[in-house]
Design brief:
There is one protein chain. This protein is mostly helical and about 140 residues long. The chain has one domain. Helix content is about 75%, strand content about 0%. α1 packs across α3. The chain is globular, with a radius of gyration of 14 Å. The protein starts with a helix and ends with a helix.
């Protein structure tokens, strides 16, 4: 595993996912997903400043990239992008089963299809970007 490559890929993938969630998703009829609000100021477990929510989001993206690089890169089928998409779908499932209920949104986003699809697209974008960048960096 190349830790520097994993950190760079994690930052880039998290940034791309964030842009899609904040700006592209609303253009596609899905809710804007503001991670600063979700993980910071509106966090039901422990409200924090808005900027702290964004920092948590990026730290989690880096941690997920390191886990991918250390344990899954080269072990999943396909090229880097496909491996990343598979990983993104795994993260999507974990988020929907564990994180969303903790954040007060219910199992599988409480059945809200817009939130569910937005989350799935965001995690696929994260994974595809992660796989592409880590594979090339």
């Amino acid at each position: 595993m190349n830790t520097s490559k994993a950190i760079i890929a994690g930052v880039v993938a998290t940034a791309v996912m964030s842009i899609v969630a904040m700006f592209v998703a609303p253009m596609m009829g899905m809710p804007k997903m503001d991670f600063g609000t979700m993980l910071g100021s509106n966090n039901p477990m422990m409200a924090m400043p808005y900027a702290a929510g964004w920092m948590i989001h990026f730290v989690l993206g880096i941690i997920m990239a390191i886990i991918y690089a250390k344990f899954l890169y080269g072990k999943l089928p396909g090229n880097g992008v496909l491996q990343g998409i598979i990983y993104g779908l795994i993260l999507f499932m974990l988020a929907q089963i564990m994180v969303m209920p903790m954040m007060g949104n219910g199992l599988f986003s409480g059945g809200n299809m817009q939130l569910l699809m937005g989350s799935m697209i965001g995690h696929i974008v994260f994974g595809a970007t992660l796989g592409a960048v880590y594979n090339k960096a």
